[in-house]
Design goal:
single chain; Rossmann fold; 334 residues; 8 helices; alpha/beta
């Protein structure tokens, strides 16, 4: 539970002048004093707790959040919170297209990393003037893009200080369907913001109070995420160990079976059986070939004998005729 007295001490309840108010912030205004609106602290505490739970769940799932606060009182606070939570941030200037045209921002990030490498390893190819120019470009890029080098696009949420000043960031997040968590004062329009935190967004104490609470919620979620990761790693290690033990036991069993099979009388294995079947098939084929050859030879012999039988009687008849003719001719001559 958030202590309301601490919130009052931080000055979260102070809004803007009543002449500069936004009618859509009416549900969060408690009253007015000296022409200055006072914010209902009970509602802000309730909404802060709801936002804290949401951010805790995101961090527990291993998702990242983008911190945005380009106001001077918010810059150092946002940077510290991003370092504590190890998440990206924007504190100098919001570059148009950071969420809607991230491919171009990626090119600028690669340029920055390349120039960093050049400065780390200065070679003889670059002169002093060129190196000074590179140094200036690196400083400029560091201001604008240095905080979002490790951004996992798209971020799970965008935390904004002063939704009115960071209007372009809020619009880009809404168009990219990214949830927006924003500190909203009495002079801003809260339409499109998913999680509203009605609070004084000008005082460094109030900004520090809200941001510190949100960063602590994110840190708790990250702790849960790390614990679950460790548990998963231990589980995977145990599974690997058990599988290794099973393989070792299986190898032992296989060696025992092999030793037993060596002692047992030899039996035809699958290979010998296959070889035996191959041999038997070959023998059968050879037998069939021999039988076919024998049949062909028999047929040939029969055919030849029949032909000779038919030819021989004709020859004998012809011989008889010649003999008779010879006899008759001899008688006539006599």
């Amino acid at each position: 539970m958030i202590d309301l007295k601490d919130m009052l001490k931080a000055g979260i309840h102070f809004g803007h002048k009543s002449s500069r108010w936004s009618p859509k912030m009416r549900p969060f205004i408690w009253g007015e004093k000296n022409k200055i609106h006072l914010i209902n602290v009970a509602k802000t505490a309730f909404l802060m707790e709801r936002v804290g739970k949401y951010l805790n769940n995101l961090a527990a799932d291993g998702k990242s959040v983008l911190w945005v606060g380009t106001k001077k009182p918010a810059q150092s606070i946002i940077k510290q919170a991003s370092i504590e939570t190890k998440m990206p941030f924007v504190i100098n200037r919001w570059i148009g297209g950071t969420l809607t045209n991230f491919n171009q921002i990626k090119k600028a990030i690669t340029r920055l990393l390349h120039l960093r490498d050049i400065l780390k390893k200065p070679s003889a190819l670059y002169k002093k003037k060129e190196l000074s120019m590179i140094q200036k470009e690196v400083e400029r890029l560091e201001k604008n893009i240095g905080g979002i080098i490790d951004l996992d696009f798209p971020p799970a949420a965008v935390i904004v200080v002063d939704a009115k000043k960071e209007n372009s960031a809020v619009k880009e997040a809404i168009s990219a369907n990214i949830p927006v968590v924003a500190m909203v004062d009495t002079n801003t329009d809260p339409t499109g913001i998913n999680f509203i935190i009605p609070a004084n967004d000008d005082s460094p104490r109030s900004i520090e109070f809200v941001i510190h609470y949100l960063s602590s919620c994110i840190q708790d979620g990250k702790k849960l995420y790390n614990e679950t990761k460790k548990e998963e790693l231990t589980r995977s290690k145990t599974v690997q160990e058990t599988s290794n033990n099973n393989t070792i036991e299986q190898k032992k069993i296989d060696t025992k079976i092999k030793a037993k099979t060596k002692t047992l009388p030899s039996t035809p294995t699958e290979k010998t059986a296959k070889n035996a079947t191959k041999v038997s098939l070959k023998e059968e084929i050879d037998k069939e070939k021999k039988e076919s050859k024998e049949e062909i030879e028999k047929v040939k012999k029969n055919a030849s004998s029949s032909v000779t039988k038919k030819i021989t009687p004709k020859k004998s008849e012809d011989n008889k005729k010649t003999n008779t003719t010879k006899k008759t001719v001899s008688k006539k001559n006599k």
